[in-house]
C-alpha cells in the first residue's frame, strides 16, 4: 500500500522554491528497534521544536504512537519551508496548519483538508511596553507595530477595520526583538507561549500581552492538515495518528517531562525555563480544552465554529465568499469524547 503517492500540482499560488531536502531540520522518531508491522507516518511542524508541539513529542517519547501501530517521524522545519509543497509531494503525511490557509487552499484548488484543531484559541499576540499608555489595542492607533509579511494577510486587515490602524504603522518583523525593545512606544507580534518570555529575559520587563483572539481574530490554531487523497484512502491511519496524538497531549498536560527530552533533542537551543513557561501558558489559558473540547476532547472542531470563522474572513475581505469552505475540513476523525482519548493515558 503506497500511502505517499505524489500529487502533481504546480500551479498553486505562493509556493516556495526552497528545496525540499534543505528545508528540513533535524527529526525525531521512535527508537531504531522497530517492529516491521508499524506503519510509517511523517509529521511536519511549522517551526523548530518547541513546547507548542509537546503532545506530539510526548506521544513519541512514551510509546503512544507505537501502541497505535505507528512509526512516527516528527520534522521541525525552517521558516522558508512550504508545508503545502511537502504534503502534495508526499514528503510528509501531515503538517501543522492554520484555519485561514485552509480556506485559501480551497480557493486556489489545492486538495488539502484539516482533520483536527489542537488549540481551541488562537495564540497570536501583540506585545507592548508597560507603563507608556499602550494598555489596549485601541491605544496603538498611529504607533509603530512590528509584524511579519504573512500577518498582512491574516489578522492585520481585522485590526485595520476594528481599530483604525493604517499600513504606514507597519514595521517589518524578522524574529529580531531589538527594534521593539528600543522603542517603548511600539508594539510587536508574537505567540503567547514564547515571545513574552523572551522579552522579559532580554528586556528585563514583563510586556503587556494583547491576545488577538480577544480582538476578533480567533481561528482554530495549530491545526492538523493532510491531503484529501490521503484522508480518503487511508482513514484508518488518520484515525490512529490523531487518536495517538491527542492522547499524547493529555499525557503531556499531565506530566510533560518525557516530551521535553525529545524537544530538546530536536532543538538544543531551548531550555527547561522556556519549556516550563510555554507549558504554564498552555495550562493557564486552557488553550486546548476550551469550549467544545471540554466534552469532545482535544482536537475538537465543529461546523458552527468553522462557519463563523469563514464568515468573518469574508466580511473582512480575506476570502472569496464563493469558496465552498466545507471542503477545508472534516469532522469524521475527531470529537470522540474526553473519556475515549484519556483511555490508557
Automatic annotation (TrEMBL):
It comes from the Bacteria. Residues 54-257 form the SsuA/THI5-like domain. Pfam families: NMT1. This is ABC transporter substrate-binding protein.
Amino acid at each position: 500500500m503506497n500511502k505517499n503517492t505524489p500529487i502533481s500540482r504546480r500551479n498553486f499560488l505562493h509556493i516556495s522554491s526552497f528545496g525540499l531536502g534543505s528545508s528540513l531540520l533535524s527529526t525525531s522518531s521512535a527508537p531504531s528497534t522497530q517492529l516491521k508491522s508499524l506503519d510509517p507516518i511523517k509529521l511536519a511542524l511549522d517551526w523548530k521544536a518547541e513546547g507548542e508541539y509537546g503532545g506530539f513529542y510526548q506521544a513519541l517519547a512514551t510509546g503512544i504512537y507505537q501502541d497505535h501501530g505507528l512509526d512516527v517521524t516528527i520534522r521541525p522545519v525552517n521558516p522558508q519551508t512550504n508545508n503545502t509543497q511537502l504534503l502534495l509531494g508526499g514528503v510528509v503525511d501531515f503538517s501543522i496548519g492554520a484555519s485561514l490557509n485552509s480556506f485559501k487552499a480551497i480557493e486556489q484548488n489545492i486538495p488539502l483538508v484539516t482533520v483536527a484543531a489542537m488549540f481551541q484559541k488562537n495564540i497570536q499576540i501583540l506585545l507592548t511596553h508597560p507603563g507608556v499608555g499602550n494598555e489596549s489595542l485601541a491605544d496603538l492607533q498611529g504607533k509603530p507595530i512590528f509584524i511579519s509579511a504573512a500577518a498582512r494577510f491574516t489578522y492585520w486587515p481585522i485590526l485595520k477595520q476594528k481599530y483604525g490602524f493604517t499600513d504606514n504603522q507597519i514595521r517589518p518583523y524578522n524574529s529580531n526583538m531589538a527594534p521593539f525593545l528600543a522603542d517603548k512606544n511600539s508594539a510587536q507580534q508574537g505567540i503567547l507561549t514564547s515571545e513574552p518570555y523572551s522579552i522579559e529575559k532580554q528586556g528585563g520587563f514583563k510586556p503587556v500581552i494583547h491576545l488577538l483572539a480577544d480582538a476578533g481574530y480567533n481561528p482554530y490554531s495549530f491545526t492538523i492538515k493532510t491531503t484529501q487523497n490521503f484522508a480518503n484512502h487511508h482513514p484508518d491511519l488518520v484515525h490512529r495518528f490523531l487518536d495517538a496524538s491527542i492522547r499524547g497531549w493529555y499525557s503531556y498536560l499531565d506530566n510533560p517531562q518525557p516530551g521535553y527530552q525529545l524537544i530538546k533533542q530536536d532543538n538544543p537551543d531551548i531550555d527547561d525555563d522556556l519549556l516550563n513557561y510555554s507549558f504554564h501558558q498552555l495550562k493557564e489559558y486552557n488553550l486546548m480544552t476550551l469550549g467544545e473540547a471540554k466534552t469532545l476532547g482535544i482536537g475538537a472542531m465543529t461546523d458552527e465554529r468553522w462557519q463563523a470563522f469563514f464568515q468573518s474572513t469574508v466580511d473582512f475581505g480575506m476570502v472569496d465568499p464563493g469558496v465552498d469552505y466545507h471542503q477545508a475540513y472534516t469532522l469524521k476523525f475527531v470529537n470522540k469524547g474526553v473519556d475515549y482519548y484519556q483511555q490508557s493515558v
